[in-house]
């Protein structure tokens, strides 16, 4: 019996993967419906993520799909939140997940049983309709997310206590009409910060973004009009980035992101451009900067009564309203602190999933990761691995080996708004997926396929690393995986080619067939 906490993206994947392995999942969801982050509500609900209605996915549908359940071909390439929620409901319906979800049920506490050292079991206390119930589970998957407890470190902003205007965290934002005629300051330049700044600039008198670190900005529409992640997240690109000398690899990244526009000219150049950070996805910001609707400023030095002073800027900027886009805390209120150690607002977990110190590996945290790519395939791969660990089919390394890896990654942490971010966490989406897939025997063998199915091998290596690749073989093999890979570009172009008949759908030239073998052999020499 496995307890799954939360029925969002990670919770649905966890429930489905448990069923695939013959386990008995019970998913506890405190609200009355599934969807987690992607279920919009007009009112902010305690303990739940809060979404503004204009949110659109930053990753394309082909790269975001669960590995054995493609998005409908008529869905747009990047999805409004309502359509993504529709997809999650289709997924739950298709695999019969709803009958395993207890809605309106809050997890109050999860505690080790007295005989945990031998059984690995947990006491799970839940509450529904004002009544508490205690159950025993053999394992637990924590899928509660980390976008519900805002971080508002006001101590980092001198003078905020005397600021006479209005300020709030981005979690409270719903509609831009609150900014009508106001002079607005947005503190922080993540995806939410830029989205809110762009929306505010359409009705506000003036909008300023304050960022101490800058950011790489990507458009969803990338080279030759194709989705950014289907061009950047390929095995060829990953091979280049991980095998080139550091300076050459960073030069390549800088070159790629600056082809759209020169970040330095727009005041966006990251403070330490050689560090790989999560890029910001927005299609409008450069033009809004060009037209003066948005101004980029350095970090906040001090707030005054009706103005703000920025670092290295002598003049005060008059403002009426501040939106703090300063991230979220990592919190597990139903767990004892000794179970998942959160130090400096950072959870220490092996492969960002397993606590390293438990006597039995029967508790896992899913989705607590910020990859440079879609989260849904990552959460699903974590669930596939975890369910096989719970079943005893996969073994974890020794505690000392796991702790050594976690401590190594701690050395690469940086501080931002009082939050701790793990830079290693944000390096290679594909490498992380491949690592977990190799644990369960689902990593595709490009060289093996080259002998048996050369066109598929070339498509996998040079084309986008879509999640279907991880269903070609191994446990959970899906018969439709090959066809899904070979038709992925058809599903990308279907919703956009609405005036002209569809022609060749692959962005890769036919010359690929001729030179592909030579390039792939060269890749082998590099140690792929």
From TrEMBL:
Its cofactor is FAD. It catalyses: hypotaurine + NADH + O2 + H(+) = taurine + NAD(+) + H2O; N,N-dimethylaniline + NADPH + O2 + H(+) = N,N-dimethylaniline N-oxide + NADP(+) + H2O; trimethylamine + NADPH + O2 = trimethylamine N-oxide + NADP(+) + H2O; hypotaurine + NADPH + O2 + H(+) = taurine + NADP(+) + H2O. Its EC number is 1.14.13.148, 1.14.13.8. The chain crosses the membrane at residues 508-527. It is found in: Endoplasmic reticulum membrane. It comes from the Eukaryota. Pfam families: FMO-like (PF00743). One of its GO terms (molecular function) is NADP binding. Its main location: endoplasmic reticulum. Keywords: Endoplasmic reticulum, FAD, Flavoprotein, Membrane, Monooxygenase, NADP, Oxidoreductase, Transmembrane, Transmembrane helix. InterPro entries: FAD/NAD-bd_sf, Flavin_mOase, Flavin_mOase-like, Flavin_mOase_1, FMO-like. GO terms for cellular component: endoplasmic reticulum membrane. It is an enzyme of class 1 (oxidoreductase). It is a single-pass membrane protein. Broad spectrum monooxygenase that catalyzes the oxygenation of a wide variety of nitrogen- and sulfur-containing compounds including xenobiotics. Catalyzes the S-oxygenation of hypotaurine to produce taurine, an organic osmolyte involved in cell volume regulation as well as a variety of cytoprotective and developmental processes. PANTHER family: DIMETHYLANILINE MONOOXYGENASE. Belongs to the FMO family. This is Flavin-containing monooxygenase 1. It comes from Rhadina sibilatrix.
């Amino acid at each position: 019996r496995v307890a799954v906490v939360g029925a969002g993206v990670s919770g649905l994947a966890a429930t489905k993967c448990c069923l695939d392995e013959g386990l008995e999942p019970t998913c506890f969801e405190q609200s009355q419906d599934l969807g987690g982050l992607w279920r919009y509500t007009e009112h902010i609900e305690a303990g739940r993520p809060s979404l503004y209605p204009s949110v659109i996915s930053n990753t394309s549908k082909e790269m975001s799909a669960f590995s054995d359940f493609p998005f409908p071909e008529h869905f747009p390439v990047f999805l409004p939140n309502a359509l993504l929620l529709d997809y999650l409901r289709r997924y739950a319906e298709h695999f019969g997940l709803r009958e395993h979800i207890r809605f309106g049920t809050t997890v109050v506490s999860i505690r080790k049983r007295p005989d945990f050292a031998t059984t690995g079991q947990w006491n799970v206390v839940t509450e529904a309709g004002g009544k508490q119930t205690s159950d025993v589970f053999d394992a637990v998957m924590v899928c509660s997310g980390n976008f519900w407890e805002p971080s508002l470190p006001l101590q980092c902003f001198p003078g905020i206590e005397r600021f006479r205007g209005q300020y709030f965290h981005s979690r409270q934002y719903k509609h831009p009409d609150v900014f009508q005629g106001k002079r607005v300051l947005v503190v922080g330049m993540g995806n939410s910060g830029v989205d809110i700044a762009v929306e505010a600039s359409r009705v506000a008198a003036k909008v300023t973004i304050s960022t101490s670190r800058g950011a790489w900005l990507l458009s969803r529409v990338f080279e030759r009009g194709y989705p950014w992640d289907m061009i950047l997240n390929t095995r060829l690109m990953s091979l280049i980035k991980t095998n080139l000398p550091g300076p050459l690899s960073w030069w390549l990244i800088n070159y790629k992101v600056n082809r759209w526009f020169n970040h330095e000219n727009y005041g966006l150049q990251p403070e330490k451009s050689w560090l790989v950070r999560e890029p910001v996805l927005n299609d409008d910001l450069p033009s809004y900067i060009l037209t003066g609707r948005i101004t980029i400023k350095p970090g906040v030095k001090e707030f005054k009564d009706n103005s703000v002073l920025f670092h290295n800027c002598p003049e005060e900027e008059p403002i009426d309203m501040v939106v703090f886009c300063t991230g979220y805390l990592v919190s597990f209120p139903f767990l004892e602190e000794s179970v998942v150690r959160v130090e400096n607002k950072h959870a220490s977990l092996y492969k960002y999933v397993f606590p390293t110190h438990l006597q039995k590996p029967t508790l896992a945290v899913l989705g607590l990761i910020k990859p440079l790519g879609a989260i849904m395939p990552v959460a699903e791969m974590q669930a596939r691995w975890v369910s096989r660990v719970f079943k005893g089919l996969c073994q974890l390394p020794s505690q000392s080996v796991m702790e050594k890896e976690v401590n190594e990654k701690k050395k690469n942490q940086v501080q931002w708004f009082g939050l701790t971010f793990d830079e290693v966490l944000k390096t290679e989406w594909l490498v992380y997926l491949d690592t977990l897939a190799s644990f369960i025997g689902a990593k595709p063998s490009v060289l093996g396929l080259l002998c048996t199915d050369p066109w598929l091998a070339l498509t996998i290596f040079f084309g986008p690393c879509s999640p279907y690749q991880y269903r070609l073989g191994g446990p959970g093999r899906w018969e439709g995986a090959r066809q899904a890979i070979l038709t992925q570009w058809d599903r990308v172009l279907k919703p956009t080619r609405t005036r002209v008949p569809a022609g060749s759908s692959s962005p890769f030239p036919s010359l690929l067939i001729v030179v592909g073998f030579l390039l792939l052999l060269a890749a082998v020499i590099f140690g792929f």
